[in-house]
Design a protein that fits this description.
Elements (H helix, E strand, L loop, with lengths): L5 H12 L10 H8 L3 H13 L3 E4 L5 E4 L8 H9 L23 H17 L2 H15 L11
Helix pairs in contact: 1-2, 1-3, 1-4, 1-6, 2-3
């Protein structure tokens, strides 16, 4: 099954949890709770997003995080590249270390053809389009006060 890395998926969820109005800051604790991302893991992801210039952070009592640009101008591809690097799609589809143009795996030619279309879709998909789906999923991922997950 082709999917984004868990870290990239968490990054999309984390960015979707940020307040979209430019004046309000969101605390990392709020993001972790809303998106159900472990805090240590989230902190690493937030660091990469900040290095990539997708978020800014303000420390202190009135601190928090915010997007550096409107959510409709941040593509999922930017997020993936911030987390997994710019060569994320150049890796072997099957994860085989010896796969290359000279020594292709059985899926190599398929991946060479499919990769540009996938990258284009990720470039066109922006955070504002993802947010409603992330929000709908939060109600299923959110823990109840006793720490258990709701049964659906």
């Amino acid at each position: 099954m082709l999917s984004l890395s868990q870290s990239a998926g968490y990054a999309v969820l984390a960015l979707s949890a940020l307040y979209t109005d430019s004046g309000k800051l969101t605390m990392a604790r709020e993001i972790a709770e809303k998106a159900n991302i472990p805090r240590p893991y989230l902190n690493k992801i937030l660091g990469r997003l900040q290095e990539a210039g997708l978020i800014t952070a303000k420390r202190g009592q009135n601190g928090g995080l915010k997007l550096t640009r409107p959510s409709e101008s941040i593509s999922v591809l930017e997020v993936v590249k911030a987390i997994d690097g710019t060569n994320w799609a150049n890796r072997c589809f099957l994860g085989l270390p010896g796969c290359s143009d000279k020594h292709p795996c059985p899926m190599h030619s398929f991946w060479l053809k499919a990769r540009p279309a996938i990258e284009q879709q990720l470039q066109e998909m922006t955070l504002d389009k993802v947010r409603p789906f992330a929000e709908a999923g939060w109600k299923f991922r959110s823990k109840k006060p006793d720490g258990s997950f709701p049964v659906t």
